[in-house]
User: Fold this.
Amino acid sequence: MLKFMYMGGVVLKILDDKRRKEKYIEKYSIKDILPEDIINQLQLVKYDSGENILQAEEKLEKLYFFVEGKLKVYTFQENGRSLLLSFYTKFDSIGEVELFKDLKITNPVDAITDSYLLSIPVEVLKDKVMDYPPFLRYIIRTLTEKLNDLSTQSAFNLLYPLKNRLASFLWMHNTGKKEIILKDSFKEIAEYLGTTYRHLHRALKELEDEGLIRRNRRIISISNEKKLKELAGDIYK
Assistant:
């Protein structure tokens, strides 16, 4: 059963599915992070493919635990262009820096596929767990891992050719059906990858000429999953 809540310009879909929520809590040991009274206040929410979860410059209303699906994180440069930072594909939290520094949201987050998250209001956390050792240890560990990933990511963006970055981008948008429907324009994808529209199309043609993909406007069919994955590596993970 779905419930709907309007928040920050987005209609939040809350799933009234206790069994599914408990499955995620158990699977990711969230009881080792939060006390029982806070666990009981967690809400399971769903975002459809293409939906925005966090928008830059808005106030953080909820902290999220990402539990299923695929998300992308990007930033806006001074010239107004967007730049892809990373993907969420495994359990993680969203909003820790804004929570502790009382900042507005810095990086937008969008769902690539239908995605599920556990949410808790920021005000509840500030009132109950800012001095709770298990939660603080989790936040320190998570932020340390993200800082390390960001350093690695920056090096990858400088060192890896566009063809590899594009392969990784396509691979992360692969839902297992060997067909990717691009929701962003080619101009936006070029910006995400830190390149130009012209160079992006040149890289797409290279992948097509090498038999890795086939293009039909904004539909990309994967012809050789093994080679595409090898070329993608771990750039945006």
